[in-house]
Amino acid sequence: MMPALSNSSARYKLVLATGWLVLGLAAFIYSGMKGIPAQTAIPVAAAFLLEFAFYLVAGFDAPRNWLAQRDKTKTALLLTASSLLPWLMYTLATGKFSGLGLVLLAILASTVSFWYIAWPPGAFADATFLIAPAAAILVNVSHLLYQTPIPKVDISILGHLMIIRTAALSVLTIRGDAGVEFRFFPNRREWLTGVRWFITVLPVTGLVYWALGLVRFRDQPLNPLLALGTFLGILWVVALSEEFFFRGLLLPWLAKWTRSETAALIITSILFGSVHLGFHHAWPNWRFATVAAVAGLSYGMAWRTTRSIQSSMVTHALTVTLWRVFFQ
Q1: How far apart (Å, rounded) are the C-alpha atoms in residues 8 and 15?
Q2: pTM over 0.70
Q3: Taking the CB of residue 168, how many other CB atoms lie within 10 A of it?
Q4: Same domain, 170 and 193
């Protein structure tokens, strides 16, 4: 066990250092191109680098197990504090601090962090646990709390990352026994399964897109480097987070409660579609919600083949990337 944990710790540090280097360089270049003052660019960049470090913790055994071995109340306190730190780092330095914002953020973070301390794991606790992060994302609370100090630059992704990793770590380190991995890198079988289900269901998904009038081609597809960056961003943030909660947690829980995996797959896909009703701020966006529900079925089938969300992550990321590369 110790060598494995040591390797995990080394991988975490390597990925963290590489990510900090790449993100820091990107922030430096971007701020220079846009003429963003250093007193604004530096605290915002520092907040992103800190959040990146916290987000990685959920995906590596060594730091995650270190949290899991603490007293659960201490772990919840650490999760809550880590949720506030990136926000405080940039708001205090840029004049965007708000006492009300701090209170609201603390309530959201502590609710997610302390949920399984207040309620022992079970059907009620599990079903209601997902409500807080889902509601926060649905009402776009990140746009309210993470006010940007840079005109025309949205930094609310900081809030999304915070909600994702705090909820995931609450499940993995406090609840425990979740039967799902928050893992960034699929193995060979998971890659192949994800690609196979993407190809298999693509004609059906494409037909639904076309029937609902959503097919509008870009004048020019994204270039290969931008397409690759889009795929990796979707894979490691959007697909990982949505598959963790929908296929990794909700689908197995529903299968247990309904005693039917098929029913659970269908219900999960419908719920997955419903959270996309606000897509492009066009509430209720029934057309896109329908497409998302159909795509959710293919993600669920990929998960069911290997019983890992990494397979559905691949199917999910390929589907979204194809859309963003070739369509508006």
Answers
A1: 10
A2: yes
A3: 26
A4: no
Q: For the chain, what is the radius of gyration of the CA atoms?
A: 20
SS3 at position 306 = helix
Segments forming the whole domain that contains residue 297: 188-326
Q: How many Å apart are CA 63 and CA 59, to the nearest integer?
A: 9
Residue 217 dihedral angles phi and psi, to the nearest 5°: -70, 145
Question: 263, 250 in Cβ contact below 8 A?
Answer: no
Residues 109 and 163 in one domain: yes
Going from the C-alpha of 67 to that of each of 74, 217, 281, the distances in angstroms are 9, 47, 37
Question: How much is the pLDDT for 2?
Answer: 46
User: 286, 324, 287, 319: which is closest to 302 by C-alpha?
Assistant: 319
Q: Provide the domain count of the chain.
A: 2
114-139 pLDDT tens trace = 999 999 888 899 989 988 888 777 77
Report the amino acid identity of residue 193: T
Facing residues of 327 across strands? 217
pLDDT digits (tens, 9 = 90+) for 246-290: 999 999 999 999 999 999 999 999 999 988 887 766 678 888 889
| Nearest residue to 311 via CA among 257, 232, 251, 247 | 247
Query: Is 307 within 8 Å of 230 (Cβ atoms)?
Result: no
Tell me how crowded residue 314 is: count the other CB atoms within 10 A of its CB.
26
- 134 plus 276 within the same structural domain: no
pLDDT, tens digit, 9 for 90 and up, residues 57-83: 999 999 999 999 999 999 999 999 999
Residue 181 lies in a domain: no
160 lies in the same domain as 195: no
Of 175, 198, 222, the one marking the end of a domain is 175
Cα angle 140, 141, 145; round to 5: 135
